[in-house]
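User: Sequence for Glutathione S-transferase family protein below. Tokens please.
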Amino acid sequence: MKLHTSAKAPNPRRVDMFLAEKGIHDIERHLVDLNAGQHREAAFLARNPLARVPVLELDDGRYLAESRAICTYLEFLYPEPNLMGRDGEERAFIEMADRQVEFNLFAIGANYIRHTHPGLAVLEQPQFPEFGKSQGEKMLSSARWLDGLLATRPFIAGERFTIADITAFCAIEFVRLVRFKPADAGLNQLAAWRDRISERPSAAA
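Assistant: Structure tokens for Glutathione S-transferase family protein:
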């Protein structure tokens, strides 16, 4: 298999953390330069017409896009350590937590960064600063929700580390580009959780 990916982008980082947690080190990587527009070139569009990374190239020549789908496939191939649930009930609750974080923190935070950070102007044309600002306010509201959740449990989906923690951590780290720090916003539970996750070896993947 070959992973078509990009450095520093949040969705590729989700897959990188997942791979690191699984101890998977034998997948070939092909770096796509987003700033150079390589994701819009014909060669990449043949792999993913939506022009988004990451994309996992399977051994049979098919291409699997979407970070969550890639992780699901890898969970099937490498079931341990388990990150998505050991039975139907646990899988459902982990997926619920992961989806809630993805839609309410990750995606909104990404919009915030893409439309307000000058370094991303080359990728987001046109930028809409007012929209970005409004997304930042919504992201803060979601971060408060997550802070309250973490007051009741040690990890996003419950008592153990799962893919939901990977999604949330990558979201928080991405919005740090605009110097957002949970502790500065009074979100002490979220800050403590973030510091614990940052100590995992996969956080440096």
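The chain has a mean pLDDT of 94.
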